[in-house]
Write a structure and sequence with these properties.
356 residues; 15 helices; 3% strand; three-stranded antiparallel β-sheet; 3 strands
Length: 356
């Protein structure tokens, strides 16, 4: 974690071209996240479990507050103004949902029936629908992924997932096969907003709008590729410092890193993430209680989804959905969420229930 944090500040320094207010803010964000991680790490899992229900209820109420009274920025209503500060409640649901579901299955440890899983799905779907309504599909997918991992680890049969996987493969194949018709401006996808439709169509062929919707994907892949094997060197990335990479401090910071540190740097970063994920899964396997195992496994898989989706987005194999890269992307709320998640892993790792 300390190595990833150091790399994050190093890349942020290069992305902003020095020590401006964004670098100072990110340094402050790291300090806040470290303090939160430290406090959570010192909190025993039984206390964390008791906080699951109120934390979830507060999160859902805040999402309802966003729905009725939220602040709108860049066409999305994702923030709630509390007077003294402005928060994004959807971020806290990345922790609140798996925490709530882990508590739910802990209370029903043992053989479970279909009704138990149905209630768990309702607990998962409710906040996801509120987040999608904002609209914020990227965060909704992360929250859904976090909750789904808990449900799957709790014993959901793979046979029930097989039809969904088959339908997904057929759906993706149909989009690729009928791309020209589906991506026509007059074709309505019904279930998706126009900007979400354009993101998928741009992923399939960025060259259709190289200066518009495809600009992000094209410029980020150019930056990643131009880094070569060894990279251009620290602070020497041309795509970065000539302002070709959009959102270079947030969603596309991996392009900045890859351009300056090359293939070897990218592999090193992926290995660090792999070690973090391996450690998280080890903690989950060794956890002493059902609640701890489900929570640790879910948190680890959420970190995996963060890394996979962000790097896939930057390299052009996934649509642009606005998912930050852990420890590298600028942002206080996301970094605080990751810090709390890592603190929970530490708490689970060192906790040993009293012998009775």
């Amino acid at each position: 974690l300390m190595i990833l944090a150091a790399i994050g500040l190093l890349v942020m320094h290069s992305a902003v071209g020095g020590t401006d207010w964004r670098f100072a803010d990110q340094t402050r964000n790291f300090i806040v996240a470290l303090c939160a991680m430290w406090v959570i790490a010192l909190t025993p899992p039984p206390i964390i479990m008791r906080l699951a229900v109120p934390f979830y209820i507060v999160g859902v109420l805040l999402l309802l507050g966003v729905f009725f009274f939220g602040d709108t920025s860049k066409g999305a209503t994702r923030w709630l103004n509390l007077g003294f500060t402005r928060i994004q409640p959807s971020e806290m649901m990345k922790i609140a949902v798996p925490l709530m579901l882990a508590w739910y299955f802990q209370k029903r440890e043992g053989p479970m029936n279909t009704l138990d899983f149905f209630v768990a799905v309702l607990l998962l779907i409710a906040p996801c629908l509120l987040i999608i309504k904002q609209p914020d599909l990227g965060t909704a997918l992360l929250v859904f992924g976090a909750g789904f991992c808990v449900i799957y680890f709790a014993g959901l049969s793979f046979k029930l997932l097989l039809p969904v996987l088959i339908a997904g493969v057929i759906g993706l194949g149909s989009i690729v096969a009928y791309q020209d018709d589906l991506c026509d401006d007059d074709f309505d996808w019904v279930v998706l907003h126009d900007y979400q439709k354009h993101r998928i169509c741009t992923l399939l062929d960025p060259s259709t709008d190289p200066l518009g919707k495809g600009f992000h994907t094209i410029q980020s892949t150019i930056a990643v590729g131009s880094g070569g094997v060894y990279g251009k060197g620290y602070m020497n990335g041309t795509q970065t410092h000539l302002d070709f990479i959009p959102e270079r401090t947030t969603d596309f910071i991996f392009a900045v890193f890859s351009e300056e540190f090359g293939l070897y740097g990218g592999i090193t970063l992926l290995l660090l993430y792999l070690l973090l994920l391996a450690r998280g899964l080890t903690i989950a396997v060794r956890a002493p209680t059902h609640f701890s195992r489900l929570l640790a496994g879910s948190i680890t898989m959420v970190l995996f989804i963060y890394v996979f989706v962000n790097i896939g987005m930057v390299t052009g194999i996934l649509p642009v959905v606005g998912v930050p890269l852990p420890f590298l992307s600028y942002g206080g709320t996301a970094l605080l969420t990751i810090g709390i998640a890592c603190g929970m892993l530490m708490s689970i790792s060192k906790f040993r229930p009293p012998v009775t």
